[in-house]
Automatic annotation (TrEMBL), chains A, B:
One GO molecular-function entry: DNA binding
Transmembrane portions of the chain: none
Native source organism of the sequence: Pseudonocardia humida
HTH lacI-type domain sequence ranges: 1-56
Keywords of this entry: DNA-binding, Transcription, Transcription regulation
Lineage: Bacteria, Bacillati, Actinomycetota, Actinomycetes, Pseudonocardiales
Highest taxon of source: Bacteria
Name of this protein: LacI family DNA-binding transcriptional regulator
Family matches, as PROSITE patterns: HTH_LACI_2
Ranges for region Disordered: 320-346
InterPro entries according to UniProt: HTH_LacI (IPR000843), LacI/GalR-like_sensor (IPR046335), Lambda_DNA-bd_dom_sf (IPR010982), Peripla_BP_I (IPR028082)
UniProt keyword Transcription regulation present: yes
Ribosomal protein as UniProt keyword: no
CDD domains, per the entry: HTH_LacI (cd01392), PBP1_LacI-like (cd06279)
Amino acid sequence: MTMPDVAREAGVSAMTVSYTFGRPERVAEATRRRVLEAAERLGYPGPHPGARSLRRGRTATLGVVLGEHLTYAFDDPQATQFLAGISTVCVEHELGLTLIPVTGGPQDAARVREAAVDAVVLWTTVDHDPVLDAVLRRGLPAVVHGGPARSGLGLVAIDDRAAAMAVGTAAFTGARAPAVLSFPLDRARRPAVRQGVDPDSAPFSVTRHRLRGYAEAAAGLGLEWGRVPVVVLARTDRAEAEAAALRLLGEGSGVDAVAAMSDELALGVLRAADRLGIAVPSELAVTGWDDGPAAAAAGLTTIAQSLREQGELCARSVVEPGSAPTRASPPWRLVRRTSTRPGHPA
Amino acid sequence: MTMPDVAREAGVSAMTVSYTFGRPERVAEATRRRVLEAAERLGYPGPHPGARSLRRGRTATLGVVLGEHLTYAFDDPQATQFLAGISTVCVEHELGLTLIPVTGGPQDAARVREAAVDAVVLWTTVDHDPVLDAVLRRGLPAVVHGGPARSGLGLVAIDDRAAAMAVGTAAFTGARAPAVLSFPLDRARRPAVRQGVDPDSAPFSVTRHRLRGYAEAAAGLGLEWGRVPVVVLARTDRAEAEAAALRLLGEGSGVDAVAAMSDELALGVLRAADRLGIAVPSELAVTGWDDGPAAAAAGLTTIAQSLREQGELCARSVVEPGSAPTRASPPWRLVRRTSTRPGHPA
DNA sequence: TGGACCGATTGTAACGTTACACAGCTAAGG
DNA sequence: CCTTAGCTGTGTAACGTTACAATCGGTCCA
């Protein structure tokens, strides 16, 4: 069931059928109707998308590479905000949106190679990800969110180091035994509690920059980073953060400040503190990251940023014409609330 | 830059190049390396996805049609749960995931016709959506979540009518002046407050069935449905529900029970009651729908269902072999908490 | 009445890949 | 030593569409 079939049935040429579907205004009203009726009669399903994309050279689809198990992307509210921002642009430009999951396995590059897309947005990934090469090779417009930077690819990333230093300072001020609650340090997502973590050893650049910022904040307050426990979680949800915080804070551990890499994690810490009867902020200061809806309600000191706008920015940078690889450093700000000790009036 | 080019460079035939990328195990180790090196040297980006899909007849991609502005899909936690369920299956089967937004406009059918996908899952849509025809026409395996039912397409939907009757009964028991907080009744998303709404007039089948169930619950308790105000919201978030509830409950309105179509909406009602100093459940009974994480914390009586499992089910039914159109009615249950008056012990 | 012009339609030639069937060659088995 | 089987590599022929340039009647104006 192809265009020539429909053409025969309608008594026109194949090209007329093609135009009827692809640029209807180019075909006379009467002819158009005749063609559509013939198509209807034969049950012609419309132009084959593969053939069309082969011939036209474009797919009208934007690809989003998620450096995460696809499932996590929908569990993480920040990731969905980011996707929401991207989708705004897709709707504007009449584009489809294809999600390309990347798991760290060997087929990743193949998936990226084979995805039928015209441009690519990469959600935070590791530094030497072969997927980056695969994208570069295809020569599609592409942008990385969060990092790593790569020549030939755009980059949209806030200054995580500076922001972490700001929020870390808010968390650690007046503390003697601070701790950090971190995203996974590697794709294996191994949970651990470690001291003396070298920030530079983290392969995810967002995580690396934040650790660096926290370390600088500690140093700036005269605290020794080498003694700061970094609690690394496998999953980044509230329940797991709560469990980890119970272990971390239990039994006179002395920990009196926790800087967490997301609001969700920080809320888990707050709940643990509540269960342990630890007073916030006098006995324990807590900070989050993102300033999602729950942060305000909980009085959480945190970093405000708009993942939604960042998603929009990423999408525009690859979809709109004149998309030379962009470098953008979106805004962020420290939001001080009641989960930290009042510090110097900055 | 095509396969013949690479073939020439590597001194082999085009077919060998094709096999090297598509079925590497069919090619001798040494040859494979030679081909890959040649490809590298020429900067060959890998097989053209369009050409491949044209020839192979499949795209290794699952399409999800969202009967919503794409942006809403990511704002609605239940929708993201549903997508998370679908994505589990995609990862399992090594499939990509393409989102196809549908806005009610005339290009909708075209978008569906042209999407490069092997199967389709439709997220709740209206009854006589031309998109359904477009999907049927393409002859792809397809399933509708929530409805409407359509021969040739699968259907995964809980018994919304029965569930609404159960939760409506919990909400309205002991009430004299109940009200309903509803999703939009049409694609235009017009907000309104109406009495005597004919449930059958709602074009979204989920909404229709729930209204029917609420009406039956009212009737079962001797309450006159024609007098029950149905508050229709444009957007389905907590803030808007709160605003609507403030209007609905203010100034001695007498409204003493509200059945809301989602937890988010119900939470808005609870907040409004709190601000107005109305006691729950003695002066006002409130019910939600979905039993999301916030419902338990708020003591909300609600309908529990797993959108995630439903997403998984939908995806499996179209992706796994032997996918005759499925009819499935996933489980749900009424969760009684403290936002409703104690009723008969069921 | 001739020419210019315009809209509608058409034929041809790719677009880049892979299924299929077959040919060579080597190794194992009788 | 001949047969069989298994592994690699190859030529041919689509897959279904659309860009491009050309054609064909008309209509309009000078």
